Amino acid sequence: MIKLIRLFLLLPLVIFCSFAGAQDQILEVSVDRSELARGETLTYTIRVYDQRQGMQLDLTPLTDEFDVLGTRTSSQIRSINGTVESWTDYIVTLFPLAEGELTIPSLEINDAVTNPIIISVVNEGPRSNQSNEELFLEIELNKETVYVQEQLLFTIRLYYTINGIRNPQFTELEIPDTVIQLIGSPNQYEKLIDGVRYGVYEKRYVVFPQRSGSLEIPDILFRGEVTDGSSNFVFRNLNTRRVTAFIEGISIQVDERPEIARDTQFWLPVANLTLEESWSADISALKVGDSAVRTITMVADGLDGAVLPPFSPTEIESLNLYADPPDIQRTFVDGSIVGSRVETMTLVPTLAGSIEIPEISVPWWNINTDLQERTVIPAVYINIATVEGEVPSEQSVSSTVDIETLLETTPIVDQEMIDAQAEAQIIAVNAIWLNYLIALAFVIVIASIYRLVIRPNKQAINTFINAQRARIGEKYSPENNETVAYRQLVHACRGKDLNRIRETLIQWSDHYLG
Q1: What pLDDT score does 465 carry?
Q2: Which residue from 87, 131, 236, 303 could staple onto 196, CB 3.0 to 4.6 Å apart?
Q3: Is residue 6, in this structure, part of any structural domain at all?
Q4: Closest by alpha carbon to 344, among 394, 384, 293?
């Protein structure tokens, strides 16, 4: 009886120990190496034995200290002496985000938890352009010190000797307190280094620091896939492997605007700044009520047109000003940003006499000479003439004129001009009735064509149109057109509809295999 009681007491403990032992064997984790250099990747493998349906793998805890570059799975079944064992490997490629000792944290998978793994990341110094590397990165800056809001040209180059790189991805260039613009599309070319021909993939940026101090360019990571070149024509099954390249970021100094330039209205650190002026009319012959269009173009080598300030005067005595919206442009010349601002204004004199159009002076900082300069459009003086025949209220009349004589003068009536105007009105009225008659005749012709031609043959016309539609539909149906069948197959593959893929594949195979 005592033995039976002991058996019942030990049975739960035995079951618990067996269950705990089974839990220890459900999950295994490993890495391909525990020490690696900065910029290298490692492979983290999670092996799950006797995997059950509905298993969830959450890799979010890894993202605190690692960048997850990709995952893949591999399932195996093994039989030894009649004992069948199965497992699934989850293979994760990790990129360490920092140096020193890093911990791959525990992951919870269903009711089991993996063990943490400690790795060591050492700094072996910046990468150099070694010709024996199949893949490496290079970064280039046009200057090591810049002013606030001055352009900084930043270039990333990927050198490679391997072919078939797919899905290229670079670290997004994100720098606090800066404005960053990508210059055009990436460039691709070849370059010979130490007798080795490299392909070069180049991306260029322009960076505008918005505050002084140290500007940190972040580490740059490239990742992509390399194919072995073999494929099947229909399914395009390619054997691929992941490749990465890394280069450390750098720091540059951003200086505050010089003290001599702090009192100026504008702060424009550029290599060159020009102002050009043009007029739509001869301003020396303007009269009261005439108009002239003035166009001024500012071009700055080193700044975006969106940051160029307005410069035209808003008020000028004895002139009415009507400004158009500015035309702002941005282009890239030899890798440098060139901005322009075009201001157009219509000027209308309101009084006769001499009028001064004030000068336009724009201060800017020459980043090549490190000196302040000014670009000026000189002031212009124009004489506005009076208009002949103006009434005295608009044009001054000499006080010596005898007002009574003016009033006694018999007005001159031009009867010929009056008769000519009356005749012109009659001609205009007749022309209106002629237009109405032409429109009425056109409507009658259209109605006659419909009643005599189209209406009696309406059934025959419909039959002809339907026959043409059927012929075109048959010509471009997937059963009769290989191109249409192939496009439907591609569309079905993108939609991942297996039934539709099967149908369209059969249709296309009938054409392709003959």
Answers
A1: 80
A2: 131
A3: no
A4: 293
